[in-house]
Design a protein that fits this description.
eight-stranded parallel β-barrel; two-stranded antiparallel sheet; TIM Barrel; single chain; alpha/beta
């Protein structure tokens, strides 16, 4: 199985590979820069070469590595200034991923801020379409389903599919499915039967062939709460039964699993990775 966590790049970006290996990961996710600001420090040739060399030596499959967009961009924003800055950030991240040899970039779909789903989706697809025109074709943008927060887009599979299938060329776009987000949006993942049904719905509307990464997270909130609050694997409202089914499903399809779970006095990253392996 391919399982890992979101690892730190503190010190230098190549340290991400070291951190992943220390935790026993054979998959990992990173931010390529500080995720809480608009400005990004340039990647030096040494940064790039060291990252690529360590990744190659690690034997981690490059297609089990993924970067995540920073927090500030809102790709569905109806406002011109955030829209322009968000587009520039997306373009920059795609270029950074290409230099590092990271094939996937996970993107939150953003908020239409009250302008309505249609307007938000129009802005979103425009952002994505413009971004791929000016970036290398070796990085795929992965659309991440949302928890259904107010004014967000892409929380239900039908809408996620409608966004995905508007985007061309299709080979530049895929999907990252977050279990906490799906559960918070109303998809039941608590039993084998309901989890199987949820994944069948996903396949019917989106298509499993478009699913490249799974964010495996339990949920602090109840089903349908529309709150993006991650919990340790098996300790939240989803529980071990449903998440075990997801893990086995991911393994059967060779889809890498990334954990975005908390660290506290109940469990650390080692503990959550160990739990996933137990569920497998």
């Amino acid at each position: 199985m391919q399982v890992g966590i979101h690892v730190s790049i503190s010190g230098s970006i190549d340290r991400a590979v070291d951190n992943a290996l220390t935790l026993g990961c054979n998959a990992f996710q990173i931010f390529t820069r500080n995720p809480r600001g608009w400005m990004a420090k340039l990647l030096s040739d040494d940064n790039i070469n060291n990252f690529r060399e360590k990744l190659s030596a690690s034997k981690i499959d490059p297609f089990a590595t993924v970067a995540h967009m920073p927090y500030l961009p809102n790709l569905s924003s109806p406002d011109d200034d955030p829209f322009s800055k968000s587009l520039n950030s997306l373009v920059d991240e795609l270029k950074r991923c290409s230099k590092l040899g990271v094939p996937y970039l996970v993107a939150h779909l953003g908020s239409h801020k009250g302008a309505g789903d249609q307007k938000g989706i129009e802005k979103l697809t425009k952002n994505f379409t413009n971004a791929i025109r000016d970036t290398p074709n070796d990085v795929m943008i992965l659309l991440e389903n949302t928890a259904g927060q107010k004014n967000s887009v892409g929380s239900n599979f039908e809408q996620l599919a409608s966004i995905l299938f508007q985007l061309k060329p299709a080979k530049r776009f895929g999907v990252c499915l977050d279990t906490c987000h799906a559960f918070a949006a109303g998809y039941d993942l608590r039993t084998e039967k309901t989890t199987k049904s949820t994944l069948e719905q996903f396949d019917r509307f989106v298509g499993i062939e478009h699913l490249k990464i799974i964010h495996l997270n339990d949920s602090k909130g109840e089903i349908g709460c529309n709150k993006d609050r991650h919990e340790h694997i098996g300790l939240g409202k989803i529980g071990e039964t449903g998440l075990s089914y997801v893990v086995k499903f991911a393994n059967s399809k060779k889809i890498p699993i990334i954990l975005e779970t908390p660290i506290d006095d109940r469990r650390d990253d080692f503990g959550n990775i160990k739990k996933v392996k137990e569920l497998a």
